[in-house]
Amino acid sequence: QVQLVESGGGLAQPGGSLVLSCETSGFTFSNYAVNWYRQAPGKERELVASLSHGYAIRNYADSAKGRFTISRDNVKNIFYLQMGNLKPEDTAVYYCNAVCARCGPQNLRYDYWGQGTQVTVSS
Which percentage of the chain shows pLDDT scores above 70? Predict the structure, then answer.
């Protein structure tokens, strides 16, 4: 059974930090690229950060560059989003996502999501 379980959300003050974690199970994690998305009230879900399966390629939304860091541990099957210098506009539900574009004997796409964790930045 595939599971992505997020933790680490909560309330932070402007300028503060949070670390989100996404523990995974039920699939070959090392074959998957991982992503963090967020969705603020009334807005579309947006991609915040992504990391390739081989650790080599990281990408960030402009709003996250210089403040957020995505990382992964292919031994523990977990990935993280370190968030610093938080701003009120970072308030959103954050979702972890794991994607394999071509997996299995049929080279199918697999796309798994966590349940979401609330991050609120407020003084």
Answer: 100
